[in-house]
Design a protein that fits this description.
Elements (H helix, E strand, L loop, with lengths): L14 H11 L8 H14 L3 E5 L2 H11 L7 E4 L6 H8 L3 E4 L11 H14 L5 E3 L10 H11 L2 E5 L7 E2 L2 E2 L8 E5 L12 E5 L2 H10 L4 E2 L16 E2 L10 H11 L2 H19 L13 E2 L5 E4 L2 H4 L3 H10 L15 H4 L9 H9 E4 L7 H15 L2
Parallel strand pairs: 2-3, 2-4, 4-5, 5-8
Antiparallel strand pairs: 1-9, 6-7, 6-12, 8-9, 10-11, 13-14
Helix pairs in contact: 1-8, 2-8, 3-4, 3-7, 5-6, 9-14
């Protein structure tokens, strides 16, 4: 009998999590109730920030953030190719133009020198971005202080895509603290650090941005008389102030998220311990191991190695298939966004962002999640070493 597949990521659901969801099922509110506000407060308190706006996904939260920041037709958003497509798509939802800035080959995050050079060129041609979206790939924060300095010089807003990075720290501050980004977005998909099933959150210091995101996530509707064009005739009156969407998170999701947040520090510590164990047991393997930075402490959403074809005699693609056949659920993060057919039809082409493309050609995400035990990790490592130590 073959051994069970080890996934690259999975959720950790406790009895306390289940009890929290059941309590909501027994309550008066399944959605638009108090659990959402409580979850928002929990995340805001973790980040040390004033405002948090929950949404039904991080993709929705990115869209809300772009809309609240005023992105629209004729505007530009820049992000990195090494990310999930949502980091770029949020601009297209607003009718804006997308462009990309290559990554640093070592950190796999946005290259600050590349951004600086692109901004200088854009300033000369009148094509500066309205928003830049740095992505904390795999849970490692970007060089946010340097990006903030450039934002102050060139006048763009920073929308930090920290979908991988709740629980991470930068310069000893929690990611999402608001010191460097105008808005930070987190994801709560099941393979992320904390899960709500599906779900996302946008955090900000700016009360006006928070209020607009909260209104837009619920059809652009307000029930606050102070925000209405005319005095309400009765308590049933609501006004649609602008065109919004139904991006609401349910109380079921929020209750699960609040319960999960109680274990956030434990989740991150366990992932960090497993990452350190990978580092030690894969040392000398010829694989490129994940980066560390002085200022950033990763949340370890992913553990991505660079495959060594020369040493193993196998291509990355062949290694992927061999590992999957052996019950090791590796994955690849990410296909560069500019190579997707939709973006190619917008004029992007191979070779434009060579660092991201070179990284992708060797990338292999190994199993990493809080409930991964050492025996399963040993199996991953033994299989890998059997492929490269021949």
């Amino acid at each position: 009998m073959s051994e069970a597949m080890i996934p690259y990521g999975r959720q950790d659901i406790s009895e306390a999590d289940i009890d929290a969801v059941v309590a909501v099922l027994r309550s008066d509110f399944l959605t638009q109730g108090p659990a959402v506000a409580a979850f928002e407060r929990t995340v805001a308190d973790h980040c040390g920030i004033a405002h948090a706006v929950a949404a039904n996904s991080a993709t929705s939260a990115l869209h809300l953030a772009c809309a609240a920041l005023g992105l629209g037709p004729g505007d530009r958003l820049w992000t990195v190719p090494n990310t999930f497509v949502a980091s770029a798509n949020c601009a297209r939802y607003c009718g804006a133009t997308v462009d990309f800035v290559d990554i640093d080959p070592l950190t796999r995050n946005l290259s600050v020198p590349a951004l600086r050079a692109r901004l200088a060129d854009a300033a000369r041609t009148g094509t500066l971005p309205r928003i830049v979206v740095p992505v904390a790939f795999a849970g490692l924060p970007c060089e946010m202080a340097e990006i903030r300095a450039l934002a102050d010089d060139y006048g763009f807003a920073i929308l930090e895509d920290a979908s991988h990075a709740i629980g991470a720290r930068y310069r000893d501050r929690p990611v999402g603290c608001g010191e460097w980004a105008d808005i930070t977005v987190f994801s709560f998909h099941p393979v992320k650090i904390v899960t709500t099933g599906e779900g996302g959150m946008a955090v900000t210091r700016d009360p006006a941005l928070a209020a607009r995101m909260a209104r837009l996530r619920s059809h652009g509707i307000t029930r606050d008389p102070a925000e209405m064009d005319t005095p309400p005739a009765g308590p049933w009156i609501y006004e649609m102030q602008e065109l919004g969407w139904n991006y609401r998170m349910t109380d079921l999701q929020a209750a699960l998220g609040s319960s999960q947040m109680r274990r956030l520090d434990d989740f991150v510590a366990r992932r960090a311990a497993l990452a350190a164990r990978y580092d030690a047991l894969l040392a000398g393997s010829g694989l490129t191991l994940p980066p560390r930075t002085v200022d950033g402490h990763s949340a370890w959403h992913l553990y991505v190695v660079g495959w060594n074809e020369e040493r193993s005699g196998l291509s990355r693609d062949a290694a992927f298939m061999h590992l999957r056949a052996a019950g090791i659920g590796v994955n690849v993060h990410y296909i560069p966004v500019h190579l997707q057919p939709y973006y190619r039809r917008l004029g992007f082409r191979p070779g434009q962002f060579p660092a991201a493309e070179a990284y992708y050609a060797t990338a292999l995400s190994l199993p990493l999640y809080a409930t991964l035990d050492e025996a399963a990790q040993d199996r991953v490592i033994a299989t890998l070493r059997g492929m490269v130590d021949r």
